[in-house]
């Protein structure tokens, strides 16, 4: 809850510099599994705050573009999406579906392979370097910046630095053995 408040306040204060992107945990179903629902109930004595937060989740952006060249997304790519314009047409004001383009953007992961693969997560896809090259070329972007996967050093490059995975939760699942990455400054 503190994280949501802090980051929402920053995005309101600096709308030209901070965009909150929806991830797979910003869903009603996942928040009930991973503790956010229980935290709201414990802190506030009812589920009203949880309901308001999950309604806000429905309005978060599915992606963002930095300087016209860096595509930011929580998970990854979708075989149903070839252009950024297609992302703009997705009705994001809903619970995260179990499949389809919106689900893929939040759940997919890069994999050292070619083409598309079945994700072991049960949602989204695995995508290879050729998929990234095609998407980046079609949209005139240089790289994809994403999260969604724990990386022990706080960040990890994929596919000759065309995909960057960043991790900013070093205490995820109460482990302090991993690093997080946070950019502080302008």
Automatic annotation (TrEMBL):
Its EC number is 3.1.3.16. It catalyses: O-phospho-L-threonyl-[protein] + H2O = L-threonyl-[protein] + phosphate. Its cofactor is Mn(2+). Pfam families: Metallophos. Residues 21-26 form the Serine/threonine specific protein phosphatases domain. GO terms for molecular function: metal ion binding; protein serine/threonine phosphatase activity. It comes from the Eukaryota. Keywords: Hydrolase, Manganese, Metal-binding. Belongs to the PPP phosphatase family. This is Serine/threonine-protein phosphatase. The lineage of its organism: Eukaryota, Metazoa, Ecdysozoa, Arthropoda, Hexapoda.
């Amino acid at each position: 809850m503190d994280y949501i408040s802090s980051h929402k306040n920053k995005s309101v204060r600096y709308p030209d510099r901070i965009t909150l992107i929806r991830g797979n945990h910003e869903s009603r179903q996942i928040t009930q599994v991973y503790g956010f629902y229980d935290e709201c109930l414990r802190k506030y004595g009812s589920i009203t705050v949880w309901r308001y937060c999950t309604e806000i989740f429905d309005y978060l952006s599915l992606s963002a573009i930095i300087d016209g060249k860096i595509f930011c997304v929580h998970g990854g790519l979708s075989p149903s999406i070839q252009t950024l314009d297609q992302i703009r047409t997705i009705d994001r004001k809903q619970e995260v579906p179990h499949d389809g383009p919106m689900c893929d953007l939040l759940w997919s992961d890069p994999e050292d392979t070619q083409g598309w693969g079945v994700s072991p997560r049960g949602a989204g896809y695995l995508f290879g370097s050729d998929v990234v090259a095609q998407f980046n070329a079609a949209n005139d972007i240089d790289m994809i910046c994403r999260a969604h996967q724990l990386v022990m050093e706080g960040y990890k490059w994929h596919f000759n630095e065309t995909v960057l995975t960043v991790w900013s939760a070093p205490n995820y699942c109460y482990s302090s053995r991993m690093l997080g990455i946070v950019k502080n400054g302008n």
